[in-house]
């Protein structure tokens, strides 16, 4: 699979697929490009998608820079710091997510507000 590019309000980030959750990764890859107006929840941006994937080795606590699919809301999520669900400094989803990729240097998103345009595409 080709590498990913994530663009948030004109800011471009390189992303790499993970070896986790191959069914989710394939569903996301088949649906690219994906784009939406993102909502912000703590240090997480997410937007709704038409992707349908089942829960696959999902978890709530993830690493900074995680791109994940939220099965409960059919959303694409980008985590870079604590969320309202966090119990420490690590990002924590509202409910389990399927990790499919990692973004380099996501801390540059600290000043992005909800309503930002977010796009995922393959190179």
Fold and architecture overview:
The protein has about 120 residues and is mainly beta. The protein has one helix at about 20-30; strands at about 5-10, 10-15, 35, 40, 45-50, 60, 65-70, 75-80, 90-105, 115-120. It is built from one helix and ten strands, in the order E-E-H-E-E-E-E-E-E-E-E. Strands 1, 2, 3, 4, 5, 6, 7, 8, 9 and 10 form a ten-stranded antiparallel β-sheet that branches. Strand 1 (about 5-10) and strand 2 (about 10-15) form a beta hairpin. It is globular, with a radius of gyration of 13 Å. It comes from Halopenitus salinus. This is Cyclophilin-like fold protein. It holds the Pfam family Cyclophil_like.
What's the structural domain tally? 1
Shape by Cα distribution = globular
Going by helix content, strand content and strand pairing, the class is mainly beta
Task: Spell the H/E element sequence.
Answer: EEHEEEEEEEE
- Unreliable stretches (pLDDT < 50, length at least 5) are none
Largest sheet: 10 strands, antiparallel
Identify the CATH class: Mainly Beta
- On the 0 to 100 scale, the average pLDDT is 93
Cα end-to-end separation:
9 Å
Beta strand % = 35-45%
Task: Based on the model shown, name its key terms.
123 residues; Cyclophilin; 1 helix; Cyclophilin_TM1367; Cyclophilin-like fold protein; Cyclophilin-like_dom_sf
Give a concise summary:
The chain is mainly beta.
List the helices and strands and how they pair.
Blueprint: E1 4-8, E2 11-17, H1 22-31, E3 34-37, E4 39-40, E5 44-48, E6 59-61, E7 66-70, E8 75-79, E9 92-103, E10 117-122
Antiparallel strand pairs: 1-2, 1-10, 2-9, 3-10, 4-5, 5-8, 6-9, 7-8, 7-9
Protein name: Cyclophilin-like fold protein
InterPro entries: Cyclophilin-like_dom_sf, Cyclophilin_TM1367
Domain Cyclophilin TM1367-like: 4-109
């Amino acid at each position: 699979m080709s590498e990913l590019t994530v663009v948030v309000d004109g800011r471009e980030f390189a992303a790499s697929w993970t070896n986790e959750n191959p069914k989710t990764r394939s569903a996301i890859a088949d649906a690219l490009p994906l784009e939406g107006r993102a909502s912000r929840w703590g240090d997480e941006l997410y937007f709704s998608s038409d992707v349908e994937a089942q829960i696959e080795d999902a978890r709530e606590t993830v690493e900074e820079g995680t791109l994940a699919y939220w099965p409960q809301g059919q959303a694409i999520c980008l985590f870079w710091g604590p969320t309202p669900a966090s119990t420490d400094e690590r990002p924590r989803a509202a409910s389990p997510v399927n990790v499919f990729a990692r973004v380099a240097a996501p801390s540059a998103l600290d000043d992005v507000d909800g309503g930002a345009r977010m796009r995922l595409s393959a190179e």
